[in-house]
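Hey everyone, long-time lurker, first post.

I ran two proteins through the pipeline my lab uses and got sequence/structure pairs for each. Pasting them in order. The first:
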Amino acid sequence: MTATLGIDVLVVGLGPAGARAAAEAAAGGASVLAIDRKKRPGFPVQCAEFVPAMIDQELGDLDQVTRQRIDEMITFVEDGVGEVKPDFHGRMVDRGAFDRLLVDRAAAAGADIRFDIRPIELTKDGSVILETGETIAPKFIIGADGPRSRIGKAIGIRNMDVVESRQITVPLLKAHQATDIFVSTKIPGGYGWLFPRGDVANIGAGVRAQDRLRLKEIVETLHARLVEDGRVGTEISARTGGAIPVGGMLHPAGRVGDIPVLLAGDAAGLANPVTGGGITSAVISGGLAGSAAAEWIAGDKDVIDDYVAELSALFKGSLDHAYHRRQELIEIFEAGGAPTPDQLRQGWISYPAYWDERTLKSAEALAAA
């Protein structure tokens, strides 16, 4: 006979969104169980490990998990020289240490944290059966379980558009304080990168899902280029990869039976469709979801609509803009063409043309193309 555990809030996923959700829900007085199928926080790393400076406003001092600071962005269009965007500030973090910090904060707030646990069924009444045989009977569920969220699927909300990524970690031979971006017609639907982390660098690329079989060659070619330039070494110390949602913000709320469900982070489609960046939006949305859950448990039933409205106000405009910029390039590729260098610049965040609303195609025009 399996045991049934009744709790206020179940958080599925303990990345930045889930850990922040668990912390805020517990701090708000709810009993919280937070689970993750990974064996430990942040591993395997499926992230380039850059976070923008604004995250400090949400999380405070992050020096203990920072590998180095970033001051600017350098963009290479095709094989051209790098074009510098100054005052692009952020941190390269140790993602394992970063996730552990957020998990430790959740545990300190009173959340019950469990790793290496996989939910195998979400029943029609909102109970969750774990692979251990235990049944969890929550009053509220937060899905923070990534771009292919099982919780999102259970409420009929799924990321339908993703890019696939591949990344290697190699020695960095010359100190570097910028994130390097490589945009090219040879990297369709995405871009390549070099992100420095002290004495090593993450080199990777993301492409349309249908081009994922080209990723190995794309990353090897970029690596060879940087070796030839004398910037990085040949030895590869780590490999990783994963899916990134690029379809824009999803509706982040639903129900399973009578149990309310909120989605946060990648599960809610909050990664930027152009850059793939999603850690800051994960942290913010997780915090809002956790607070909303605690307030709902305390009796405020309007917080579900408030959460949806708040996420829309914070993220939908910029994500829609990025989605349309990406689709403009995708439309060219799918028609059998190749974007010009100016079109590639218009599709990347470091250039003024990216932000010019006058050149942005409408959603209706893109849908009709």
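...and the second, right after it:
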Amino acid sequence: MKNMVISLNFNGCTEEAFNFYKNVFNTEFRVIQYFKDMPPMEGFPPAPDSVMDKVLHAELPLGGDALLFGSDSLAEMGRATTAGNNFAISLDASSKEEADAIFNGLSEGGKVDMPMALMFWGAYHGALTDKFGIRWTIAFL
């Protein structure tokens, strides 16, 4: 395993929240992407116009190896965010095989939200909710 990250989801205020965290932790964005930056992907419907200026993915380094990820998970896209589902543990695997093994293990008895697949940003990535209700994202880059 290369890294573990906490991912936070918001109802449209990710940019505001991450600007707040940026000031608190005295850091700068490593990445900030918006839904309008996302290219079309086979099997995924395009994002509605109402979310184009919302955050698809933000990254803030917090010091050392610690990273904070964030995105807007909106009802318009079928992913309403509520307290309890507004975070995920993100694991960065050392190999595709390790990513698959972790994903398959954690998804046993749980729910696959996004099967492992190659994503437009170059990562092999998937998401699931384990049988205890904990959300996980697994990636290999």
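Reply from user beta_strand_b:
Welcome! Quick read of the second one: The chain has a mean pLDDT of 88. DSSP finds two helices and eight strands in the chain.
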